[in-house]
Amino acid sequence: MAALGLATSWLNSPPLTAAALHGRVVLVDFWTYTCVNWLRTLPYREAWAEKYGRYGLALVGVHTPEFDFEHELGNVQRAVDDLAIDHPVAIDNDYAIWTSFDNHYWPALYFVDALGIVRHHHFGEGEYEQSEAMIQALLTEAGATGFDREPVRVDAIGVEAAAGWADLWSPENYLGYERTENFASPNGAVLGTGHDYVAPAELALNHWALAGDWNIDRGAVLLNRANGTISYRFHARDVNLVLAPGGGLVPFQVRIDGRPPAGDHGADVDADGNGLLDRPRLYQLVRQTGRITDRTFEIVFQQAGVLAYAFTFG
Fold this sequence. Notes:
It is built from six helices and 17 strands. By secondary structure, it is α+β, with helices and mostly antiparallel strands. It folds into two domains: about 1-160, 3-Layer(aba) Sandwich (Glutaredoxin), CATH 3.40.30.10; about 165-314, Galactose-binding domain-like (Jelly Rolls). The strands form two sheets. Strands 7, 8, 9, 10, 11, 12, 13, 14, 15, 16 and 17 form an eleven-stranded antiparallel sheet that branches. The longest helix has 14 residues, at about 130-140. The mean pLDDT is about 95.
């Protein structure tokens, strides 16, 4: 817990110390604001904080950035505001808290007892009832009584809703050359410099392609000329994409199997497939409502300068 003193700054709170938290059961929640896996856990974290806060539970977020733009405090503050997060958030831009906990995952939840000892951890999504049982056990150990033992129920919506696990056959994929897989534009990738790409006539499942003038850089792909396209063959209910504008607002258009998404549009797209890239964040572009099968996603950006980082699915 002393590692909290290594935060570069704090949101929603003055700096917290191990001494200030002594006597409370603490959930230390490692997150980064574009991580869809963390976003889907947020309703549970907040429900626990609300239910058990009066009995001695403290939720402390540790924002450790993954992408370059997540180091910017203003971007994190806007995400905190958009998500209505009101618990303390330690900004861990130097990965100092992450390293002190020997953490390797987003999301990661560490359960700290009233004496400041880490007693349990959970990585990733799921096991919500087991996590809540651990909270209850640590609170009881600390002398708390009178709380409701029934687990919380959440009704998450939008990007925070649980994934459609039974139909989720498409894994996360980064677009920068350091970690990407299954790039399918003919003749392969030209790294670190502008190149005119074309998309193949067909894509295999979980393969992707570029069309237009793009740079494939280490951590992202960069659009050099307007009307560049990214296409992806997927099998999932949801398609999410981490994007950043080069400057200003960038209109884009989404197609599924060559047509507007209609009722299968995501929260950041209308039924005609139109959306607006306004700031660096995760964009939910597809949420299917019917039977899930292999489909081809396309997004066309109407201005240059766009950076695309990673696809996630749900």
